[in-house]
Structure formats: structure tokens, C-alpha cells
Design goal:
This protein is α/β, with parallel strands linked by helices. Helices cover 38% and strands 18% of the residues. It has helices at 8-12, 43-51, 65-75, 88-99, 115-122, 139-144, 168-177, 203-208, 236-243, 253-264, 266-289, 310-322, 346-360, and strands spanning 30-31, 82-85, 105-109, 126-130, 132-133, 136-137, 150-156, 183-187, 212-217, 230-234, 293-295, 301-305, 325-326, 328-330, 335-342.
């Protein structure tokens, strides 16, 4: 039997690190590795999810019409310029397929979401990472990196794994100073956590410029990671282009119904966000008291840096595993002495801090 040929860009693309198992085994009673919500979805979302069991024999709405309508009403957007998919990561792959050709340069933060590099490589594009200032993206570095081969700029804001954000005034300046033909992709997966007055996901830029797309997700604050619900807002032309790549019924009926109900339950979302922010504050203060460096975060996770380098980080990671706690090493980002810690419940946060105190001797 002849061997199936693989697209050369698949072979040449960087190897994607395998994430920890999604199922928490008895060895890891506490999973703080994947930026998931520590809280279950809204009771209203769960009710809507269970209600769909009566119609599982029917296909879901092809364009996620109800979910798009709810999103449009909540954010004051034209729902015809919204598309939904199985997670925002799926939309990011559509964007790459539609707008990156062989040899195109794509600018993104050096410590931006790792998936950007994979998508760029799969299309034969050229990844152009730009530096940060203390893990905060400087838009001037992006603008200086633009060449006549630049086709796209991707900015995760807030950033993953950094947890930092770019003020909206700088995001607007970035779009205004980029050449008009360059597509600006604003990945706002963690937007719901950023309550700072100078932060904005950038939806209005879609209406004032032709080449902007904003991607969002219901996996994080809304706690629907398992259902895979993402969405994007852009111009009619861009959305229609991406819809041609969407394939079939890619967002299930349970996902659409639970997603709409979760978005409408603002009280529950606010409660979850406030508890996560309180947990982040607790983790940050406690770890800094131990003499460790923590990058200030507006998200539901933090970056923890070890002053003695990679060996100290690996020892801490091993110690946490021995205590049944799973966290996220960031070696794939060349941050060899850094762990990413997702906020947990109060009990999980305390267990993590107690294990760290035991490790540091504090």
C-alpha cells in the first residue's frame, strides 16, 4: 500500500505540545493547567442544555441564529456580522486558511497564543514574533515589524499566557497606523475578565475599518469549554468568506442553547468573574510573599517565575504533582523558568499555596 502524502507545511510546522489530559485522574485532584473556569456553568445554561435532550434527533440551526441574535443584543452588534463555531480556535484556523498564503508574513506577539504559529505554518506563511516590554505588548514594535510582505497582525488581548493587556487607545492607534490591506485579528478570548477602564475588546473598530475581526469564546468565563462555543464579529465580507470554510453543522444544539442562556445570565457571570479575580489577587499576594515573581494578570491565570531558573521551576512542578496538583509549564514559549497557574476554587487555591509554602519553606 502506498503511503499517503502529507502537505509539506504540516511537516514543517512546529510541533504542538500535548496538553495535560482533560480528564483529571486520581493522581491529579486539582487541575490548574488549562485556563478553564473553576466553576460550573450558569444553572440557566445547564437547564437549557438538558432541555435539548428532547430534540437530539434534529440537526442544530446551521448558522447558530438564536445564539447570534442573543450576542447581537447583548453587545449591541449587527448579528448578521457574527459567526459562531466550535470554539474561537476553530475560527482562528478559518482566518488562517482564508487570508494567509505561502510567503505571507504574519506578525504576532512573541508570547502570544501558541496556536497562531501552528496556523501560520500550516498555510506556508512566515511567523514574525515581536517582543514585549515586561510581558506587555508594545504596538510600536508591531508597527516597526511591518514590511511589504505583511498580510496579517494577530493580537491576543488580553494575552495568553501573559495575562497582560494592551490599552484600547493603543489598539486603535495600531489599526490606524497599519496599512489598510493588513488584516488585524483581535483575539479577545479573555475579554470578560478584563474590567479595567482602559480596556476594550475592539468591536467598534470593525464598524469603523474594513480589515478587523474580533474573536471571542464562551469557554472561559462562561464555563462551556466542553461544549466548544466560539464566535467572531467582523465585516459582512469577511464573515461570509469564513462561512464558506465552516463546513456543516459545526455548533451543536446543546452548545447553541446553553451558550445563549449563559450569555443572558449576567448576574452569574459577574459572580464567577469576581470570584476569579479575588482568587487571582490571593494567589499573586501569597506567591510574592514567598519571594517569587508573578506577572500581574487581568485574566483567570497568572505566570509564576522562579528566580533560580529552570531547575527550580521543574522541582516546583514535580512537588505540585506529588501533591496532586497539575499546572502548566511554559517551555513551549521558551519560558523555561515559568509556570502558568489557572485560578481555582478557594479550596483549590489554598491547597496550591500550601504546597508552594511547603516547597519554598515559607
Amino acid at each position: 500500500m502506498s503511503k499517503i502524502k502529507t502537505n509539506k507545511y504540516v511537516k514543517d510546522s512546529p510541533s504542538q505540545p500535548q496538553p495535560p489530559a482533560k480528564t483529571v485522574t486520581p493522581a491529579f485532584k486539582i487541575n490548574l493547567a488549562l485556563n478553564e473556569s473553576p466553576y460550573p456553568p450558569s444553572p440557566k445554561a445547564l437547564e437549557a442544555y438538558h432541555e435539548t435532550s428532547k430534540v437530539l434527533n434534529r440537526y442544530p440551526n446551521y448558522t447558530s441564529a438564536e445564539l447570534r441574535l442573543v450576542l447581537g443584543e447583548k453587545y449591541g452588534l449587527d448579528d448578521t456580522k457574527i459567526m459562531c463555531a466550535a470554539g474561537s480556535e476553530q475560527i482562528l484556523s478559518y482566518i488562517a486558511r482564508a487570508y494567509i498564503a505561502e510567503g505571507d508574513e504574519v506578525i504576532h506577539p512573541r508570547y502570544g497564543f501558541m496556536v497562531y504559529r501552528f496556523n501560520i505554518a500550516m498555510q506556508g506563511g512566515i511567523s514574525v514574533p515581536v517582543e514585549h516590554d515586561d510581558f506587555i505588548v508594545n504596538v510600536d514594535y508591531i508597527l516597526k515589524a511591518v514590511t511589504d510582505k505583511t498580510r496579517m497582525v494577530i493580537l491576543d488581548n488580553p494575552g495568553n499566557p501573559t495575562g497582560t493587556y494592551v490599552p484600547y487607545s493603543d489598539v486603535k492607534r495600531l489599526r490606524e497606523q497599519l496599512p489598510d490591506h493588513i488584516l488585524l485579528v483581535l483575539d479577545a478570548a479573555y475579554a470578560e475578565f478584563a474590567t479595567e477602564s482602559d480596556y476594550d475588546a475592539g468591536m467598534e473598530l470593525v464598524d469603523s475599518h474594513k480589515n478587523v475581526i474580533v474573536t471571542r469564546t464562551l469557554s472561559k468565563l462562561y464555563g462551556l469549554s466542553s461544549l466548544r462555543v466560539g464566535w467572531a464579529y467582523s465585516t459582512e465580507e469577511i464573515i461570509n468568506t469564513l462561512l464558506h470554510l465552516k463546513g456543516g453543522f459545526n455548533v451543536s444544539k446543546p452548545a447553541q442553547s446553553a451558550g445563549a442562556a449563559a450569555i443572558l445570565d449576567q448576574e452569574y457571570a459577574d459572580m464567577s468573574r469576581d470570584k476569579c479575580r479575588a482568587g487571582i489577587d490571593y494567589l499573586t499576594v501569597e506567591l510574592r510573599t514567598m519571594g517569587l515573581k508573578v506577572t500581574s494578570s487581568v485574566c483567570n491565570f497568572i505566570m509564576l517565575h522562579f528566580p533560580k531558573g529552570r531547575d527550580q521551576m521543574k522541582a516546583a512542578d514535580a512537588h505540585l504533582k506529588e501533591n496532586g496538583i497539575l499546572v502548566g509549564p511554559l517551555g513551549a514559549y521558551n519560558l523555561e523558568s515559568t509556570l502558568r497557574i489557572t485560578v481555582g476554587t478557594d479550596a483549590e487555591n489554598k491547597a496550591f499555596i500550601d504546597a508552594m509554602k511547603d516547597f519554598t519553606g515559607n
